[in-house]
Amino acid sequence: MRPKAFVSWSSGKDSAFALHEARRLGLVEVAGLLTTVNEVHHRVAMHGTRESLLDRQIAATGLPCLKIPLPSPCPNDVYEARMAAACANIAAQGVRHVVFGDLFLEDIRAYREARLKEAGMEGIFPLWKRDTRALAHEMIACGLIAHLVCVDPRRIDRRFAGRRFDANLLAELPATVDPCGENGEFHTAVSAGPMFAAPIPVEPGEVVERDGFIFADVVPVSR
Q1: Buried b (16+ CB within 10 A) or exposed e, 95-105
Q2: Residues 6+ apart with CB under 8 A from 213
Q3: Can you give the pLDDT of all 223 residues of the chain as single tens digits?
C-alpha cells in the first residue's frame, strides 16, 4: 500500500511539478496540500501569490489544503511552532510523509528532514538532483504554465518579473542563473498544468518593489 502524503505547496512550479510526479510515479497517495499564508497580506509566503489565486489552484488540484497562517514579519520560532502544529494535525489523519519540490540545496533538505523527524514523519523529494535545465524544459513540455512573481534583482534583472516561464525566458537567462531559480533568483506562480483539472485564467497585475525584491502580481480572472 502506498503511503499517504501531503504536498508542501508554495504555489510555484516546483511544488506543482512535484505533485504531478508523485502521482505519476505512484510514490504516494496524495491526501492534501500544506501551504503557508501571510495572515496580514493574504498572500503565499515569499512568492507573494495572492490568496485568491492560491484558492483557485487548490480547487484545480481537487485536494484539501491545510493553510498555515504566519505573521508578518515571522520570527523563526513562530514559524517552527506553527509548522509543528500542522504536522501534528496531518499526522493525526494517519499521514506520515510530506512531498517537497526541492531540487538540490542540501541544507534546505536537511532542515526539512530534521523538523519532520521531530514530528515522526518523513520527506519525499521526487525532483531531487535532477538536471535543472532538463527539468525546466520538461515542465514546460508537459503543459505547465507559470509566471515569475518574485525576482531577486541582485541575482537577475528585474525585467524578468512577470514574465512567463517558457523556452524564450530560459534562453535569455544568464549562465549564472539556475534555470529553475533554485538559488533564490526567482519564484513563480502556476496557472495550468497536468496537476490541475483545468487551467486557471490569469492576467498580469502591478509590479512593485518591496523588501529588496520585485513582485509581479498574477491575478485570477473569471471567464
Answers
A1: bbbbbbbbbbe
A2: 150, 151, 152, 153
A3: 789 999 999 999 999 999 999 999 999 999 999 999 999 999 998 899 999 999 999 999 999 999 999 998 999 999 999 999 999 999 999 999 999 999 999 999 999 999 999 999 999 999 999 999 999 999 999 999 999 999 999 999 999 999 999 999 999 999 999 999 999 999 999 999 999 999 999 999 999 999 999 999 999 998 6
Dist CA 163 CA 161 (whole Å): 6
- Length, in residues, of the chain: 223
| Stated pTM of the model | 0.96
Tell me the backbone φ, ψ of residue 76, rounded to 5 degrees. Answer: -60, -35
Backbone angles phi, psi at 12, to 5 degrees: -100, 180
CA distance 54 to 196: 12
Rg, the chain, Cα only = 17
- Domains, the chain, in order of start with CATH, read 4-124 (3.40.50.620), 144-220 (no CATH)
3 state SS of 107:
helix
